[in-house]
Design a protein that fits this description.
Layout (H helix, E strand, L loop, with lengths): L3 E2 L9 H5 L4 E2 L5 E2 H12 L2 E3 L2 H4 L3 E2 L5 E2 L1 H8 L6 E6 L2 E5 L14 E2 L5 E2 L3 E2 L2 E2 L1 E2 L7 E2 L7 E5 H7 L4 H5 L5 E2 L13 E2 L8 E3 L2 E2 L15 E8 L3 H4 L6 E7 L7 E9 L3 E11 L6 E12 L8 E15 L2 E15 L32 E16 L4 E24 L5 E28 L2 E23 L5 E2 L15 E20 L2 E18 L2 E2 L4 E13 L5 E12 L17 E12 L5 E20 L2 E25 L2 E16 L3 E3 L5 E3 L11 E10 L8 E10 L2 E2 L7 E2 L2 E11 L10 E8 L7 E6 L2 E4 L4 E9 L1
Parallel strand pairs: 1-9, 4-8, 18-21
Antiparallel strand pairs: 2-6, 3-5, 7-8, 10-11, 11-12, 13-14, 15-20, 16-17, 18-19, 20-21, 22-23, 22-51, 23-24, 24-25, 25-26, 26-27, 27-28, 28-29, 29-30, 29-31, 30-32, 32-33, 33-34, 33-35, 35-36, 36-37, 37-38, 38-39, 39-40, 40-43, 41-42, 43-44, 44-47, 45-46, 47-48, 48-51, 49-50
Helix pairs in contact: 2-4
């Protein structure tokens, strides 16, 4: 194998930083050196490169203790006469000392240009570590759970504008069931959602009905998708999984970047990202990121505008302590389109034709959607010694929203006249979320333990004023006339307080090649609510959660695993009321999962396959003795399998591929639902809406680094979403669709040093302007997918 020598560091990550990483519990067996180095790379989440001839015939004493990667390498190489060097934050090269090699370059060495290294253990599109799944720095191979990471480089290459766009190339996710509805990020993971599954920096993003915070991906370093129940570490969350967004962080190296974009629908955006040390000792680091955005959108009379800024400061008084303060302010005076359309004319034929994609059921004299959000928090870390460390994460967020919209409620018999109603909503939400934990790295005989014990809390106060107006004029969907004068009085008021407190413990145990992960948690939750002065019957109580998983680590990079995990979610007051007025119990979920992960030694790549079976109980369904009330005898089951490949073959080539098969059904239900052509149907045995049986995606991009095309990058992808059911009765289907995306960029500095840091790019989504419906939630609630969107961007980094 050839030694790879890489130079250059991006995002403030240096070899020195790599050598100074926190300690890891290693279990590297004594024996052949090549096998020991492979085990070290897998456990450290690092790429280890060396010539086969250099390691041939050499043995290692191994290592079975907690150590930094640098300390571990010194022990593993003891007696071999070899040295190591961190060539970047994720790659270490093993070689003979220069004197042993006669002062010459090792034969077969390959000199590469700068490699993009971002975040913790990521190269290109590939992430080999993530703290999201275990709340510790754990290599992905050791996590007994299916996890995907969307890196900063992937988001940049695909020029994603929303969280939905960031994860739509990931398996197990229905990222855009509401299509061009731009304001709320509705996401389904393994068939469950769409609420309660979004987290930011490990803390839940709490929301109201429309006061839903939205994080712009320009402020993110990566997005982690955790599939399957995660209640043991995160408390209440859907059984399908959750999405954790990770904010950008200050860097040790000074950088400045400005981005200017323009595109279809009169879209314009300017962004800036500045960071670096504030003092020579680098005890103070900063990062300031901001953007301004405006677009007319593809829907008539629906603008989208945003101004946002995110300042971050890190203080590191010594090597053992750090404090990072993160603030964010975002104002969307026009939050874009949020509405629905009837099935006839979108998903189903209409004798009058196809409803235009630009049709807005609302009215510019009435429509309003404005939202402002602000947050501030901190992340504190302190290592007491080689064994104990403490971490605390706190965030306070406030959201104000003001919504007034006219919604469609069904077509007349002529299939062109749309009934409408008005709805107004004003919300003020304040939320405080915290998470504190102690970590201990210890050994008991041959077993190394990474133990965390912690507690978290979620507290929110919501004031919501709302009102309806059913005296709204109809509108012709094929020849709309706007300009009606409608007043929507705000009559109702809801005051709600939610509280959840949890304690949890987890032990990651390593013995030889086995990794056993066990976790347990107890939650206490309470909701107090009044709707226009009337107390609501809302859930209160406590609930335990458990998790267990076993992984086996082969030396060749293959890691099979099995796991069991649980979830719970308090059932909201809108789910109904029992006949005896007793509080509703939380829904509960259990999952059995098995899978294989493969990280080829010496290669930046990760291949995963997972099969799973999830059952959710205590789902509300109609009371068979009195349909005005509910009982909690419903059950939903989701089973299937997922495949994913993330490959960074060379600095020039990225590949991301995914496939998902899902079988999601209401296995127990007393509820009936009307069909679009008449009749009522029992929903037992039927599919939830918007969930496809099959979905797949493929993306690839290539950078030319020499010749006449040096500096050019070309890429493209396809996304396939299979048929979905459009209503609870499964009385009609939404057709499958395939859309293509493409990108091209040119680094002017590749051949002209005077333009170093200047990059021009163009991205097109839905390249061939496919006319499709992304999903329907009911016969009167269908959603078009976005048409062709082209964005050009010029970036300058210095």
């Amino acid at each position: 194998m050839s030694t790879i020598v890489a130079t250059g560091f991006v995002g403030g990550v240096t070899p020195a930083a790599a050598q100074g990483q926190s300690q890891i519990s290693f279990s590297v067996p004594a024996g052949p050196l090549s096998r020991a180095l492979t085990a070290f790379g897998r456990q450290a989440g690092l790429q280890v490169t060396f010539l086969a001839s250099v390691a041939a015939g050499k043995t290692s004493p191994g290592l079975s203790e907690a150590a930094t990667p640098a300390q571990a390498l010194s022990r593993i190489l003891q007696g071999t006469g070899l040295t190591y060097s961190f060539t970047n934050a994720t790659t270490v090269a093993i070689s003979q000392p220069a004197s042993a090699a006669g002062g010459a370059t090792v034969a077969g060495a390959i000199q590469l240009d700068t490699i993009n290294v971002q975040g913790n253990g990521t190269t290109g599109f590939v992430a080999t570590q993530t703290p999201s799944a275990t709340k510790t720095q754990t290599p992905v191979l050791e996590i007994p759970q299916s996890v995907s990471t969307v890196t900063r480089e992937q988001m940049d290459v695909q020029n994603v504008q929303t969280l939905r766009q960031a994860i739509r190339y990931s398996p197990g996710v229905v990222a855009e069931p509401r299509g061009i509805n731009s304001r709320l990020d509705y996401l389904y993971v393994r068939g469950f959602g769409p609420s309660g599954n979004q987290y930011l920096d490990g803390l839940r993003v709490m929301s109201g009905e429309f006061g839903f915070p939205q994080v712009d991906p320009y402020f993110l370093e990566q997005v982690d998708v955790l599939r399957g129940p995660s209640a043991t570490l995160y408390g209440q969350s859907p059984p399908g999984g959750l999405v954790n967004m990770v904010s950008k962080r200050p860097t040790e190296e000074t950088f400045r970047q400005v981005d200017i974009q323009g595109g279809t629908f009169n879209t314009g955006q300017i962004g800036f990202d500045f960071g670096g040390p504030a003092d020579p000792e680098k005890k103070w680091l900063y990062r300031v990121t901001g953007l301004g955005f405006t677009s007319d959108t593809q829907v008539d009379n629906a603008k989208q505008q945003r101004v946002a800024i995110q300042p971050i400061v890190t203080w590191r008084p010594n090597a053992a302590t750090s404090l990072t303060i993160i603030a964010n302010y975002q104002n969307d005076p026009h939050a874009g389109f949020y509405n629905n359309l009837p099935a006839f004319g979108t998903a189903l034929p209409n004798p009058n034709g196809v409803i235009p994609r630009s049709f807005n059921p609302g009215d510019p004299n009435y429509n309003k959607f404005a939202i402002t959000q602000a947050s501030i928090g901190y992340q504190f870390e302190h290592r007491f010694n080689d064994m104990f460390q403490f971490r605390q994460n706190v965030r306070y967020m406030h959201v104000d929203s003001d919504v007034a919209w006219l919604y469609g409620s069904g077509l007349l018999a002529d299939r062109k006249t749309l009934f409408r109603y008005g709805y107004g909503d004003k919300e003020s939400l304040s939320a405080l979320t915290t998470d504190s934990l102690m970590q201990a790295d210890v050994r008991t005989g041959p077993i190394s333990h990474r133990i965390i014990v912690g507690g978290d809390s979620q507290v929110s106060d919501l004031v919501q004023q709302y009102g309806f107006n059913f005296g709204v004029p109809t509108i012709n969907v094929f020849a709309p006339v706007y300009g009606v004068n409608i007043v929507n009085p705000l009559l109702g008021r809801i005051d709600a307080n939610q509280q959840q407190y949890g304690i949890y413990a987890q032990d990651q145990m390593k013995f030889d090649r086995f990794v056993l992960t066990l976790g347990a948690r107890e939650d206490w939750y309470e909701t107090r609510a009044r709707d226009t002065g009337t107390p609501q019957n809302v859930p209160n109580g406590q609930h335990p959660s458990f998790r267990g998983g076993l992984t086996y680590l082969f030396d060749n990079g293959i890691a099979p695993y099995v796991s069991y995990s649980e979830s719970f979610q308090p059932t909201g007051a809108t789910a109904g009321m029992t006949a005896d007025k007793s509080p509703l119990k939380p829904t509960t979920g259990q999952q059995i999962e098995g899978g294989i992960k493969y990280q080829p030694p010496g290669m930046a790549a990760l291949f995963t396959a997972a099969v799973f079976d999830i059952k959710q109980q205590n789902v509300t369904t109609k009371d068979p003795n009195n349909t005005a009330f509910v009982v909690q005898t419903g059950e939903v089951e989701s089973k299937g399998f997922e495949l994913e490949a993330k490959v960074n073959l060379t600095r020039q080539f990225n590949l991301a591929a995914a496939y998902t098969y899902l079988d999601v059904r209401n296995t127990k239900s007393n509820t009936t639902a009307p069909g679009i052509y008449g009749g009522t149907f029992l929903t037992q045995g039927l599919w939830p809406v918007s969930i496809p049986r099959n979905s797949a995606s493929l993306w690839a991009d290539y950078l030319f680094d020499n010749g006449t095309l040096a500096g050019f990058k070309l890429g493209g992808g396809v996304r396939y979403v299979g048929e979905t059911y459009g209503d609870a009765a499964n009385s009609f289907q939404v057709a499958a669709f395939t859309v293509a995306d493409a990108m091209a960029s040119y680094d002017l500095g590749a051949t002209r040093p005077q333009f170093k840091g200047l990059v021009a790019s163009v991205n097109a989504t839905n390249l061939f302007d496919k006319y499709y419906v992304s999903g329907c939630a009911a016969s009167v609630a269908c959603y078009y997918g976005a048409g062709r969107t082209v964005m050009t961007k010029v970036s300058y980094r210095w």
